[in-house]
Amino acid sequence: MFFLLSKTLNYLVMPLTIVVGCFVLSLIIKNKTWRRRFLFAGMILLFVFSNEFLANELMKAWEVETKPYNSMRKYRLGIVLTGTVIPQLKPDDRVYFTRGADRVVHTVQLYKLGLIESILVSGGSGRLIDIKEREADRFKEAMVLMGVPDSLILLENTTRNTHESALEVKKILIAKGYSSDECLLITSAFHMRRSLACYRKVGLDVDSFTTDFYAHKGSYYFDAFFLPKLEALAIWHKLFREWVGFIAYWVAGYV
Fold first, then answer.
1. b or e along 88-113 (b: 16 or more beta carbons within 10 Å of the residue's beta carbon)?
2. What is the pLDDT of residue 2?
3. Comparison of pLDDT for 10 and 90, the residue scoring more
4. Which of 44, 135, 137, 184 is positioned for an S-S bond with 85, CB 3.0–4.6 A?
């Protein structure tokens, strides 16, 4: 039930959904004062959610910084979380990734640099309707193609969200004889706060390594402050999903 409610809530409170809701209410409400208020609110929110400066600064504050390779120690196991595979595309003789493919690429790089000895991929299908395709399996396909031996990749491909992942990964670590301080958690920078909170809630005090950054560190130009950007809406969408997810997990006692 929690899984269904959290997914539904995600769709209802997204930035663009809120903006469209304000505009719709401005058309259907009979009271002229409230019609103007909702129209004005929709216009203001659309400007805010499409503003590159605001979106980038908030994402920069939320994302967890990564580490240079030369400052890292070695780990027995790298735990990489899925969530970046595009399912059901044809032909199905290859793996299709969203921009979060850094999770795979940087994990393989950590292995080839000798910073992790083996890999555990965690994640099944996070969709409301189960399509039977398991993201962990697809991650493994790509990693083997990149040169990681099949025997060094463990799979956890049954979980639907980060909380379930933490519980199942803990069972695997106990069964395989890994301690938390030997493990490195790998996921996108925007997703790391919730992921670490979930893992530490179940007693896994793992170190973190972030990938797939949305925020940039560069300078701003005039258009970043005043012209609407589609990319800004995408960043706000990511932020809202994580904020809503974090709050829902906190209410449920998962973090």
1. eeeeeeebebeebbbbbebbbebbee
2. 57
3. 90
4. 135
